[in-house]
Amino acid sequence: MEKDSILKGRGAQQNTPNKFLQHMYEMREDFLEFCRLEGEEAESNKTQYIPIFPKTIVNKVDSPDVGMMYSMNPYQGCEHGCIYCYARNTHEYWGYSAGLDFERKILVKESAPHLLEAKIKHKNWVAQTIVLSGNTDCYQPAEQKFGITRKCLEVFLKYRHPVGIITKNALVLRDLDILKELNTHQLIAVNISVTSLSENTRRILEPRTVSIQKRLDTIRMLSENKIPVNAMLAPMIPGINSHELLQLAKAVSEHGALSFGLTVVRLNGAIGQLFSDWVKKALPDKADKILHQIQECHGGSLNDSRFGVRSKGEGKIAEQIHEMARLARRRYFEGRTFPKLNMELHQRYKDGQLKLF
């Protein structure tokens, strides 16, 4: 790895142009050289937290490729910096870049708990699982400062409403008290993302995430407290982590996961440019091979937008990945089932208290 060429602590190595904006911002080489000679930073690498004030917080998910009907995101942008993250493109809707802006400009929705409460108290709302982190991680570093996710979980508990969580951060254990109480009513399911067993891979692929061991320990701790855990072994990236699938499945199974899911990486929108730039800097000797193998999974392109196919991939490499997944389920998850969440309690708690009459 050419360490000198890598921007430390970040996944993206550039800001790609925003397709919705007429003008683009570009740093000239002479300015960068001037900053280098003067010992100055051309721009700050610090994270900014920017408050925003949405009118709604719960989103209906129309994609048939995603196993959820509703999601909510307390934060837009994510400091974890995972280079492959499909959510990067959504930052362009806010006028920012899908690249470094996505990791350094975190939009904070402090009104999320109040908006959530108004949504699930509405007379026409019928309980369906709402997933925290359908887009960006609800337990990213910003949560330590703002605590919005915990406040949302308190709302779910108050109204006995089913909730799912997707995260790759051990910070979820901070809220174990609420999770345990939700689980007594069968109202919680947690999805922990584990993409590699190699810390070297984790550091360059997901630079500001917790270690793999902490994620496995999180699965174990949740499982020991009877909270159902599904492991997200996603995305599988040929040439980077796809060869680890069996070992990953074995590890999450041994730590108590009841099931696992996976996707084959696709690099849609600005992510194709960001990933290509990153892989040539982070893994220069393997970059061309990795990009070609990803293309083999999507008919010669880095992306496939067809529902039902785009997350699975096609061709021999994708088939091998899915065959390994079938083998892993037979070998490590035989007889395990993931429970359905309780949709029946919420109607009786809509007014904030159990109706007696």
TrEMBL record:
Keywords: Iron, Iron-sulfur, Metal-binding. It holds the Pfam family Radical_SAM. GO terms for molecular function: catalytic activity; iron-sulfur cluster binding; metal ion binding. Residues 61-301 form the Radical SAM core domain. It comes from the Bacteria. SMART domains: Elp3. This is PA0069 family radical SAM protein. The lineage of its organism: Bacteria, Pseudomonadati, Bacteroidota, Flavobacteriia, Flavobacteriales.
